[in-house]
Amino acid sequence: MNPERVFRFVLIGVFCLFSIMRILYYHLAKRAGYRTVIEESRKYSILLSVFICYQVFSFFVYLFLPEWLSWAAFSLPLGTRAAGSSLAVFALLLFLWVHRSLGHNFSSTLRIKDRHRVVTSGPYRLMRHPMYSAFYLLHAAVFFLTKNWFIGLSWTLGLTLIIILRVKREEEMMVRHFGDEYSSYMKRTGRFLPPLRFRGIFKNNRGAV
Asked: Which one, of 164, 175, 99, 167, lies nearest residue 134 by Cα?
């Protein structure tokens, strides 16, 4: 089979599974019936919606009208693109871990509901925003799989802009609602990656075994 076709199938499969996962956990959280007590301003929700629409549009252009983006294509070894497939699978597994850890606390927008709690299990034990980390991994995988610098660059810059605009406000929102509980949680976790001190813990655990 043509390798290009294989990588396109991988992309389609990854985004189908990702979409199914998001929809399932969105409905799970919605059925819980929690009442919103704090929510982000509408303009940031609109910006996120615009970015998502752009991603969907450019993704379908890449799949069905590739000649429109051929000017941004570049060469990559098959091994590197195959590594992109592995990275995409890893990103999906991290997304699943994050969603399972959030459970009824999941929300696609910045909002806090009346029965929300500070999640400190799963990847949240080590970092405050593993969802954003998973998105970066997925975007890196897309860059390798599409071998298109325009898609890779524009998607990553858009994601970075969204995160810059959201992450500080998100943490301020959490501190305002949960107070010292979240402030203490921030001190012992990294923002997008585990704090360096956990490396020593992992080494000690390996030595004890």
From this structure: 99
3-196: which CATH architecture?
A: Up-down Bundle (1.20)
Residue boundaries of the structural domains of the chain: 3-196
Give the end-to-end CA distance of the chain in Å, rounded to a whole number.
Answer: 46
Give the separation between CA 95 and CA 136, rounded to whole angstroms.
11
Q: ∠153-171-27 over CA atoms, to 5°?
A: 75
Q: Angle at CA 161, nearest 5°, toward 155 and 167? A: 120
Query: Which distant-in-sequence residues (6+ apart) come within 8 Å of 63 by Cβ?
Result: 8, 11, 12
Per-residue pLDDT of the chain (209 residues; tens, 9 = 90+): 688 889 999 999 999 999 999 999 989 888 877 777 777 667 777 888 899 999 999 999 999 999 999 999 999 999 999 999 999 999 999 999 999 999 888 887 788 888 788 999 999 999 999 999 999 999 999 999 999 999 999 999 999 999 998 898 889 989 998 999 999 999 999 999 998 765 454 454 544 33
- The SS3 assignment for 111 reads strand
Interhelix angle for 78-102 vs 130-146, to 10°? 160
Q: pTM here?
A: 0.88
